[in-house]
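Q: I'm writing a short explainer about Adenylate kinase for a general audience and would like to include a description of its predicted shape. Could you first generate the structure from this sequence?
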Amino acid sequence: MNLVIMGLPGAGKGTQAERIIDAYGIPHISTGDMFRDAMKNETAMGLEAKSYIDKGALVPDEVTNGIVKERLAQPDTKSGFLLDGFPRTIDQTNALEEILKSLDKKIDAVINIHVEADILVDRLAGRFICRDCGATYHKVNNKPKVEGTCDRCGGHDFYQREDDKPETVKNRLSVNITGSQPILEFYEDQKLLQTIDGNREIDAVFADVKSIIDSI
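A: Of course. Here's the predicted structure. Afterward I'll give you a sentence or two in plain language.
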């Protein structure tokens, strides 16, 4: 069961990704985790990525693609995986197709959590994050169970990202919409795209996600 999860910032993609990996026991493969692991393990691609990051430069697609290939070739992906944060461009989408072909794997479904942009502006303006583990909360919709304490790690240090502030959110969403549209169209053409209404309670959204996965 090989999945890609997509969604605009604030759509609840991260929350649904956590539920998927908890329910199905497949590895959650995010861009950030892949880079950190590759650099920590000093793989060939990890060292190359580090050489760019240390200079403050963008990591080229061919290096990112190489790190993805390294990760997808690891034994824990044998029963499936959830890709999160990759592909981000249509070039990366095409590269992923080649990577999977070389590994004799294929994508079974692309789950897109859809929420209208104007709703996301309100959502993102209220979002805050645990500095210790990265768990995401909202001052109205998803508060920690104990005020001031992270549910996941017990930390007490929270912050709001600069790009979650209202003055920058609209531009950020516009950039993401432009970038993601060709990818969504690509997977729509392949009959792999499953779009879910994310403007509902978390449990209701996950019920739809689970229905899609269980039908694979």
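A: For your explainer, you could say: The chain has one domain: 2-26+79-215.
Q: Perfect, that's easy to follow.
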